[in-house]
Amino acid sequence: MKAAIWTGRVISALIILFMLFDSIAKIVRFKPYVVGTVAAGYPDHLVAILGFVGLIPTILYAIPRTSVLGAILLAAYWGGAVATHVRLEQAAWPFPVVFGVLAWLALWMREPRLRALVPFRS
């Protein structure tokens, strides 16, 4: 079980790092992120707000006591990303789905309370 816990921690760390970079790039209005967000149909003035909307659940996900709430909010955030990609008929829509699955799988692997709540049985 130690290997599963560490695997969950590594996957979680990668998700957290990606989301921190993505969120901070939006907050500081890194040009490619502004251009991409506007191209997706969101107004320019909302880019930094979307960065904070991604940053808050990422921080909650990183804190063990609030990780389940963070995972719920990240799933909602990625659900919005899926809806945006589908609306624009972009083939990238599976990317946020995979992120959501990985985030919950990683949390399940590293959190014994979640494993007790959702046991996988053979």
Task: Specify the helix fraction band.
Answer: over 70%
Radius of gyration: 15 Å
Whole-number count of domains: 1
Low-confidence stretches: none
- Apparent shape: elongated
Quickly list its features.
122 residues, elongated, 6 helices, mainly alpha
In words, what does this structure look like?
The protein has 122 residues and is mainly alpha-helical. It has one domain. The chain has 6 helices and no strands. The longest helix has 26 residues. The chain is elongated, with a radius of gyration of 15 Å. The model has no long low-confidence stretch (mean pLDDT 95).
What is this structure's SSE topology?
Layout: H1 2-27, H2 31-39, H3 47-62, H4 67-87, H5 94-110, H6 112-117
Helix pairs in contact: 1-3, 1-5, 3-4, 4-5
Briefly say what this structure is.
The protein has helices spanning 2-27, 31-39, 47-62, 67-87, 94-110, 112-117. With 122 residues, it is mainly alpha-helical.
